[in-house]
Amino acid sequence: MRLSIKHATRYRFDTPLTYGLQQLRKTPKSSNGQHVLDWVTRIEGGKREVSFEDHHNNVVELISFDRGTTELEVVSEGLVTIDDTSGIVGPHRGPAPLWLYARPTDRTRVGPATRKLLRGIDGDSDLARLHALSAAISEAVVYLVGASEATWTAEDALNAGEGVCQDHTHVFLACARELGFPARYVSGYLLMDGQVRQDAMHAWGEAHVEGLGWVGFDASNGISPDARYVRVATGLDYADAAPVTGLQVGGHGEALRVDIAVQQQ
Amino acid sequence: MTETPIFDEMWGRDQTLRQPYASFNSWLETEDTARLRAKQREAEELFRLSGITFNVYGRAEAEERLIPFDIIPRIISGREWQRLTRGIEQRVRAINAFLHDIYHRQEIVRAGRLPAEMIARNEAFLPQMIGVTPPGGIYTHIVGIDLVRTGDDEFFVLEDNARTPSGVSYMLENRETMLQMFPELFSRNRVQPVQNYPRDLCTSLMACAPDMQRANPAVAVLTPGIYNSAYFEHAFLADQMGVELVEGHDLRVVDGRVAMRTTEGYKAIDVLYRRVDDDFLDPLNFNPESALGVPGIMDVYRAGGITIANAPGTGIADDKAIYSYMPDIVEFYTGEKAILKNVPTWRCSDPDSLAYVLDNLSDLVVKEVHGSGGYGMLIGPTATKKELREFAKKLKARPGNYIAQPTLSLSTVPIFTNKGLAPRHVDLRPFVLMSPGGINVTPGGLTRVALKKGSLVVNSSQGGGTKDTWVLED
């Protein structure tokens, strides 16, 4: 499948910005079954300072806001082709060692709610157990836009019983790691049926299974990723893979508008 | 059982004057005690005037305190020093290779010489450094190797300081003071100079600049500010090197570089000698609460636009559990047996070792794996029963947090007291500079001395003092 993606983020400030930086992880990565044909990032009201590939093989761009700006616009767009690999991303490649993905993080720490969920997980193979986990998560945490805070942990989401894809993914990571699978967060794009415009990126989890390598699980949709899923950034949790991490001085009254369009070519 | 007498570096074990002290001793014999007493007071006054002070944690009544200085030098022969230098160079080379390896292919783990969990479960391992090769391949630009001596030929490494070794300003000030007060001693003894250290440091840092082509790389010293216990040293070193002393708010990312605000606009920095811990270095990438760092500096670093000295993530080499593997680490990367010995170390994470340590607590020194500065340690032989009981509880609760070592009979060197000379235990921190051009060990270092009779704790934060350290030209 060939997808065209356009992701625009506009910040508007009532008062001029004194200083600001943003770290972007918005460039899809080429991996097994996914090829980035073309990708550009345009910035208005700021500029690219540096770019590098981080330890999760994410393309990172550091941009600075122009001094005194009241507007910043970042538009990234391009073309990506994806094969349906039934969610299998394949063997681990470095530089990060596989064990890094077995480490719990603050957002994916196991607690009473996670343990309770895990008690019901069964299956006669690794894949069966992970699918059972994914299904149990979508049941335990009802998908509800706006239900959760961006800072929520896996435990927070389970205790609340509602959340978004980010929360599903954090619960998946906490549980998969507890079951002994290295696991990672994936932020990306998803082609939706009959809908081009979206207001947020999607997120899902990947677990490393002996013999198969990395396998994706989208608890929010109850499936493994197919040719409609575009992998952008990966990490131990949201903090590692977030599309934007920012820091700014001044610039009060911030208004943010996100426009994402994903369509088949 | 008869106890072996403690090795005194001046008088040996049997009160026979050791050769390196011969010339010094003949001078001392002609000196009048009253004059020396006056000199000791004068030295203290010089230190007070120079402003060299040290903040002591956990002592509200004295925010700044003078580290006591003792006028009797510690003297090491050139031959002894040469042997030490070979061992230090070997160890520093191995530490740098180890750091490169664990942030890349982890061959040492693949080879089965270091258990993966020593790195995987290590809080000092910095994932952001995975796959990063610093300019020139140098991680540890400045290293302090803490040594103790137990006999004529017996030196042990007590710990490695690859993160941010401090104390070099004391080495320099101690020598300066001795030169001022006893110039005659330096004409009688051929003492190798330490005064080139700031120049060597600057040259070594410049040699590690990201772009080797640039003519005069810009170096700066990053300090957390005046409330840091080592602020004096930061200011002193910047001044001695003739480079800028900066704080986080003086720097920002400009045109893809880290640049310093000046009256003529921003000026890019090539090499930043930072005395700010990893966690506080970059609020965008590490602790977002930090006001001491430079947002985005890690991004510039990873893109190859600046050298950070020492590299982020080097603290793992200081870890006391990693320390216990150091003989293997040296052998793995250099193909040679370690020249400098390690103190035998029990890792309490291992159940058998823990059992041994608990059974023999009153004979052992127990340290926190990530601790430094002598905080949170137990010295078994001098601890009270209550202290032992309480420490045993802490050990059982978090065994992986501790290592234990036998108490060594550290060598002594005389100090000058009101009642004349008296032996006190010492250690030694030589300072090592590393660049693609090679390794440079300053002849001497910082001798720390436990001023209390019989005490083995030399840390300045625990009431230790310092001495000038002489390495003689043979």
UniProtKB/TrEMBL annotation, chain A:
Gene3D superfamilies: 3.10.620.30. Residues 157-221 form the Transglutaminase-like domain. The keyword Transmembrane does not apply. Keywords: Hydrolase, Protease. It holds the Pfam family Transglut_core. GO terms for molecular function: peptidase activity. The keyword Ubl conjugation does not apply. GO terms for biological process: proteolysis. PANTHER family: BLR5614 PROTEIN-RELATED, SLL1049 PROTEIN. This is Transglutaminase-like enzyme, putative cysteine protease. The lineage of its organism: Bacteria, Pseudomonadati, Pseudomonadota, Alphaproteobacteria, Rhodobacterales.
Automatic annotation (TrEMBL), chain B:
Gene3D superfamilies: 3.30.1490.270, 3.40.50.11290. Pfam families: CP_ATPgrasp_2. InterPro entries: ATP-dep_Glu-Cys_Ligase-2, CP_ATPgrasp_2, UCP005522. Residues 73-450 form the Circularly permuted ATP-grasp type domain. Coiled coil: none annotated. PANTHER family: BLR5612 PROTEIN, SLL1039 PROTEIN. This is Uncharacterized conserved protein, circularly permuted ATPgrasp superfamily. It comes from Citreimonas salinaria. The lineage of its organism: Bacteria, Pseudomonadati, Pseudomonadota, Alphaproteobacteria, Rhodobacterales.
